[in-house]
Amino acid sequence: MCGLAGVFASGRWSTEELQRVALRMSGAFAHRGPDDDGVWVDATVAIALGFRRLAIVDLSAQGHQPMRSSSGRYIIIFNGEVYNHRSLRRELQSSGCRFRGHSDTEVILAAFEQWGIERAVRRFIGMFGIAVWDATRRELSLIRDRLGIKPLFVYHHDGLVSFGSELKALLAGPEFDRTLDTPALTSYLRYLYVPAPQSIFRHVVKLSPGHILTIADPSGPLPPSVPFWSAETAAREGQAAQFSGGDEEAVAELETLLTDAVRLRMQADVPLGALLSGGIDSSTVVALMQASAERPVKTFTIGFDQQDFDEAAHARAVAKHLGTDHTELHLTGADALAVIPRLAEMFDEPLADPSQIPTFLVCELARREVTVALTGDGGDELFGGYNRYIQGEQMISGFERWPSLLRRLSASGLTSLSPRTWNRMRDTLRPAFPAAGRTRHLGEKMHKLGDLLRAESRPGMYRSLLSAWQDPERLVVGGVAAGNPDGALDGDTQLALMERMMLADQTSYLPDDLLAKVDRASMAVSLEARVPILDHRVVELSWRLPRKYKVRDGRGKWILREILYKHVPRTLVDREKMGFSVPLAQWLAGPLRNWAGDLLLSGETEGLLRSTAVRREWDRFLAGDSTNSAGIWAVVMFRAWQDRWLTSAPDRAVDRAPLHEKTGRLNV
Hints:
Number of helices: 28
Structural class: alpha+beta
Mean pLDDT: 90
Oligomer: single chain
Low-confidence stretches: 649-668
């Protein structure tokens, strides 16, 4: 895991200018690569590549980047891992290729020379953001892995293309227009993240997962990127060739493939472990790791002093049964709160998923002992793990048959009571109705149901379940309809509603929220996070499996559970899904109240957000209505981000400053 950055420009640039730019851009994310750095430039075509390395495979100087191919045609900077590099190396060697070292970077370059860029990338199993210069064709190719595990941002304005693993590298570039993208801001307030290909800045795009962007002329329009893989195609082809075996065969096929995915991700020349929550996904990954390991796997979890948010006991029980070398750290609310001032620096594009806080803390814990950690991300999106898939499909299918007037009246009735009142009613009725009394966050769920009933269409109903602000267009000055990352709901009618929900999440929520969160949180402490469940071969198999292997008896992830039960007793892992989050509403009403209020009510929102709408929602919250605590958190995080990234611009005068004729020093 590393960080890459660079520029491809029109006009005349000196070698020294390009070197300075590349060094400063890559220096902006030194945390991504504390072990080594490098720069390559060619002033004749005004291109510069900068790199920061976190050494994982081949720790020697042979893994240094930027790296040139054996013929000299390709120069590459590469963030991520190609896990099948050993088998590709053997195949390339049989064709006459020779290698100097043992890094996967060298294999990538040889594959490009042997098969061409697109054919080679189709053969990679891994996570990657790649920038490669073709000196023969004088073209820059930017490549992002199939699921969007690794990020890649691209800026294009006034004859300059700059790119990097994080936005902060582009902000440190030779020129950057900080004009915000209003539709992107509107989308962020709805979904708590900015959906690709948009970014928060008007002149920046995120390269879409599974795409290659090839640029020959930086002065012209940015050409469209070309897909080499897509979740939509995997879904369509999987549905057309459904698995026809029985239960045992399905479980065996997935277990074999998932075991291979885990083993490939256990390759490293540095200490390796896993993040363990005790849930189905992370427990399955750790169980398969331990079954393949010669010694106890290092596992890590954090616990909180609030019981509703503490999974440490569950993780401890799973670790004990599997025999891992387990590390557990209990944190107080104060420990978690101390992270919040660092979030705007860490997430240089606004992200308001509150699980970013515990994610950072468990990564920080793991980094004390390991450099690589496997995680369980992706299980919910691939195998139907979210309640909103199962319950959402049932509700939407039922409610869309109701007359619209009945839906609106029902919505008004549900939302006429505050969440606090709903929760008090639940507590009062708990002795008589124990099952109903166990429902967590009942009040918030009732208001969410009210929002769903107000929607006029099937896609709108599901969108309401995903939305923090139901009408963000009214909050943003000049707001326009938010982007539609859940467009899969409007698309292929061959997919049933639940499958379309899963596809929508795989193409937007997964890469733009969950994987972005894990990348920034882990890289902030120089930890490489690997996600075996998101091996593209597992994704493709998941689409071939009929629904009965995902959802059975009203519960999701049936097939993952069956694999896990071979390693861990059901009693240790069968429980209500908790999630990985924090008591956000309690914090906003308590220790964060003054800080959040200052941000929300300051004049800095003028011109971007409607201050009267923000104040009205904050007053409602302080009066006890916590329904929109996620939406309030989104505004707070945007304001903190705004203070960090819009109010101060780095000095770029050094970029094009001339050198003194005799001393060679900068004239600044």
